[in-house]
Amino acid sequence: YTEAWDADKKSIHVMPDTPTILLAKANAANVSNKLYTQAWEEAKKKGYDMRADAIPIRSAKASRDIASDYKYKQTHEKEKGHYIGCPSAKEDPKLALAARAMQLQNDRLYKKAYHDSKAQVHIPVDAMSLQAAKECQGLVSDVDYRQYLHQWTCLPDQNDVIHARKAYDLQSDNVYKSDLEWLRGIGWLTEGSVDVVKAKKAQEILNDRLYRTRPDELKFTSITDAPDVVQAKINALQLSDV
């Protein structure tokens, strides 16, 4: 019963000249990359046909000639100014003369050998002048002039040494005043002394803050539901522009 209906559903009959089909074909042709490049592909298959006097050919030839002339003269431009007419600068008479004059006028090179050799003094050890200088130095030397007869050696635990140290400590002004120098500038008061207690009591008596309390320091809170507060709120709401 449904076989003919199923076969008819599979077959679609669309007229080829309807506006929708024609528009779809035109859009497909517009967006087709193959049709867009078809003329270019056919032109490539035919090959290139350029005349010798074409503008691109003439431009390429002119660029080649300019580049060739630049490459040809590149070595010449680099070596320009280096030609002196001699195989080397040392063989040129003018350059050699200038170098010789500069070397003669250079004071540092002129005195180089002198400065190198002036610090190298070689005097024999047994020279007469050196021996005389040593003898003169020995005569005027104060170290050799003063010769101590002997050196005293005292043991640290001897009675006279201990007594001398104690006498030095007693007579020493630095040791005598060391405690004073250490205590100078240090203020010290006993916590429970009479002067400290008296100063505290006088401070409490003269303290005006403890004697009386200012009204602005009292903590208070107004009653929110008092009649005058409620009436003030009502009046504020009635007079409010908002």
Summarize the structure.
With 242 residues, the protein is mostly helical. It has helices at 3-10, 19-31, 33-36, 38-46, 55-79, 93-105, 107-110, 112-118, 128-140, 142-145, 159-171, 173-176, 178-183, 194-206, 208-211, 227-239. The radius of gyration is 62 Å and the shape is flat.
Helix count?
Answer: 16
Order of helices and strands: HHHHHHHHHHHHHHHH
Q: Low-confidence stretches at least 5 residues in length (pLDDT < 50)?
A: none
Tally of DSSP β-strands: 0
Q: How much helicity do the residues have?
A: 55-70%
Give the overall pLDDT as a whole number. 78
What structural category characterises the helix and strand content? mainly alpha
Termini separation (Å)?
A: 84 Å
Shape call: flat
Major sheet, described briefly? none
Radius of gyration from the CA trace?
62 Å
Report strand %: under 5%
Please provide a written account of the structure.
The protein is mainly alpha-helical and 242 residues long. The protein has a domain at 15-44. The chain is built from 16 helices and no strands. It is flat and about 145 Å long. The model has no long low-confidence stretch (mean pLDDT 78).
What are the defining features of this structure?
single chain, 242 residues, mainly alpha, 16 helices, flat, repeat, Nebulin_repeat, NEBU/NEBL
